[in-house]
Amino acid sequence: MVPLASEKRALWIIVASATLTVMAGAILGPVVPQIRDGVGVSDALAGLIITTHGAFIVLASPLAGAAVDRFGPRRPYLVGLVVYAVGGGAGLFVDDFLPLLVSRAVLGVGVAFVYTGITVLIYELYEGGRMDRALGLRTGANSVGAATWPLVGGALGVLSWNAPFGVYLIALPLGAVAFFAVPETDSGTRRSGTDEPEDTASVFSVLRRRPALVFVYLLYLWANVLLYAVVVFYPTFLEELGVTSSFTVGLYLAVNGVAGGVSATAYDRLKRRVGSRVLVLAAFVLWTAAFGVASFATSLVAAVVPVVLFGLGLGLVFPSAFVWVEGLAPESMRGRLSSYVASFGFTGQFLSPVVFGPLVVPFGVRGVFVTASGSAIVGVAALVYAVKRG
Q: How sure is the predictor about 2, in pLDDT bands with cuts at 50, 70 and 90?
């Protein structure tokens, strides 16, 4: 562990970096039509500009995890910030579709290294209640970023479709500050110059010995499936209630992010009182209620309740997943095993419209919410069983 003063200095840099992983896609959401017209492609191809980075996060995360295990988390994190700035900022100067798509792939690689580097930095710089607080603040930063970055992107999109890409360059000054403020961890010092991590056991052998890790990955995947059920289908639900303004839709989704930030910021205090398993159980109860209310809400006021409840649950589940991985992963494999959290999370985001989309035509958007609520009830039952067994 490093001195407490260094921990505190590093914490806010890490929290700021956490918002970048959300910004990667969120900031361009409001300007997809302008991007489509700017590069002269169809709606479907324009959508790839938003989603391509997610696919490369999934692919690159295991590589980022291996790099963290070999060199410690600090250097891959700093390299990731540079790659992030290059891949994201390239959109300022690119006006052809294929080069822009390549730049989004580069951005995804940068996000993977930043995401995994942040996770293991928190594991190694903090312990006990301070680690819980850091993980909660990291999730809170993600939630608030999800609420605010689209507003920033929309505002800059008024200037030009390229302008929002300039925000990605913030990773460069952030990286410069991190170079001095974020200390090298014990694992980075110990492994410097070595060829292999201390523990050469395969990931699969660890998963066989500790199957609870698989449960954590699946939990994180399904949490992201449900999150994107809100992101993808709530605008359609609001349209049925008479909301036609994209800004108003954005406000509803922003409430979801703010609610998640509130519960995540209080995560360490809540965990001390009841434990992480009870918090995750509470989150599934909140999600059951959230989608249940959305299934029957008929007013714009009632439509606020589901996004608040769902956001509160997210703020409890996301840090719990990272806490569990830290407790289950061997020290020398934390990079690889924590990297799969990112892979499963972004896979869940991709799968959400695939899972729920076919329900819209026969059952309407409320059928999506009924099904999501049912899946959350199954989660409640599984967690109750696990808590009783544990």
A: low
